[in-house]
Amino acid sequence: MTEIPRRDPAPAIRTYVAPRSHRVVSGPGAVARLGEHLDRMGARRAFILTGRSVGQGPLPERLRAAAPDRIAGVFDGISAHDPLDDVAAAVEAARAAGADAVVSLGGGAVMDAGKFVTYCLGMEVAGIAEMRALLTPPIPAPGERQAMPAQIAIPTTASAAEFTGVAGVLDRESGAKRRIGHPRLLPDVVIHDPEAVLPTPPDLWLSSAIRSLDHAVEGLYGPRATPYTDGLGLEAIRQLLHGLPACRRDPSDLAAISAVQAGAWLSLSCGSSAGTGLSHGIGYLLGGTFGVPHGICSCITLHHVAAWVAPAAGPELERVAQALGVEGAAAVGPAIARLVTALGQPIRARDAGVPSREALLDLAPQVLTLPHVAGSPRRPADEADARALLERMW
To answer: Are 186 and 203 in contact (CB under 8 A)?
Structure first.
């Protein structure tokens, strides 16, 4: 039997860096206090950024009612994976509206777009060429005294992108999903209103929550894990397991939605600090190459990657197993697969829009270059090893 090497033990000295402080407001009806948050930050011309489905629903009007005479415009053209041309159009629309605040309303793509738009407005980045240049790090850092528009995030899915200072953008010219990151990109205010989730299609809500489960599980065996991030990840799993089955039974259960929102918050705080692994990395490839939504990517990748790394991450996955109510690291992957199936979500790439087995396996060379490989408890030894992992997902 081939021995699977474990990642080198963590160094004796570990560093945890807390993210920039921001305000999190949660509970039914929290959206109605938008005007108070704008007042506190001195913002008079708020610009709503959203996607087409949310933009055509009741939420934009609720925001207008919550902040009378202070909504300078609405842009509802953000689509999945944040294509750069969508985001560039949003920047120009916000600039034309004289926006001094960006209110992001929607799922993870909209949350990321809000960060990118805020950065471009504050740093006076104009034109798609200048924006494309930002996608090659490092980005110019805003000074401590650099004025930036206020940024408020109102998520309608459970991806938890509102809790990071990182934004992913799809550059259609290269076909690659690229990221920019800086602590000043973190939203100033996050509003978790379970009532804002009610118009979200149930399948979108449930699959996005598996993305949050992905943050927690991979964070527990992440390369920068600490006792603090472990605590966040384990409680995130408990909250998600409490809320998700109830949301499946009754999508209007506000208490269950709130539990999932809490789990998403905790999970992202864990994963972004501790680091994530191959489930996330391969998910980015599936999304950028085939247009698979982020949440569905995690439905496909997480249970397979958890099973694949189990021989090299036994102690870490033992704790995940306890939180999931199963016994042993090897049981984690199958338990996640059962959960995803019970929520009515796909667990195979063939059922999520990936056109062929060959197209999936062709990603193997890109898997080897993912930044997530270095911190994974188990790493693909070569292209054949990466193809074998992808084969599991087909």
So the answer is: no
Tell me the β-bridge partners of 176. 171
Q: Give, as one character, the DSSP assignment of residue 83.
A: B
Q: Is 124:91 a contact under the CB 8 Å cutoff?
A: no
Position 323 pLDDT exceeds 70: yes
What amino acid occupies position 293? P
Q: Are 386 and 368 in contact (CB under 8 A)?
A: yes
The 3-state DSSP composition of the chain as helix, strand, coil percent (nearest 5) reads 55, 10, 35
Q: E strand or H helix at 299, and its extent?
A: helix 294-309
In 154-253, alpha helices (H): 194-197, 202-220, 227-249
pLDDT of residue 295: 94
SS3 state at 70: coil
Assign 3-class secondary structure to 28-44. CCHHHHHHHHHHHCCCC
In the sheet with 150-155, reading across from the earlier edge strand, the strands are 23-26, 189-192, 150-155, 101-106, 46-51, 71-78
Per-residue pLDDT, 285: 94
Q: Does residue 356 register a pLDDT over 50?
A: yes
Name, in order, each residue with C-beta under 8 angstroms of 344's C-beta and a sequence gap of 6 or more: 203, 206, 248
Which pLDDT tens digit goes with each residue over 104-113?
A: 999 999 999 9
Using CB atoms within 10 Å of the CB of residue 143, give its burial: 0 to 12 exposed, 13 to 18 middle, 19+ buried: exposed
Q: Please report the DSSP string for 114-170 in residue order.
A: HHHHHHHHHTT--SHHHHHHTTSSSPPPPPTT----EEEEEESSS--GGG-SEEEEE
243-266 per-position pLDDT tens digit: 999 999 999 999 999 999 999 999
- Alpha-carbon distance of 370 to 167, in angstroms, equals 17
Region 92-110: mean pLDDT is 96
Query: In whole angstroms, how far apart are CA 91 and each of 77, 87, 88, 165, 359?
Result: 11, 6, 5, 18, 34
| Helices (runs of H) and strands (runs of E) counted in the chain | 17, 8
Residue with tokens 């870490």: 316
For the chain, what's the residue count?
394
User: How far is it, in rounded angstroms, from Cα 236 to Cα 262?
Assistant: 7
How far are the Cα atoms of 66, 86, 141, 354 from residue 183, in angstroms, in the given order? 28, 23, 9, 35
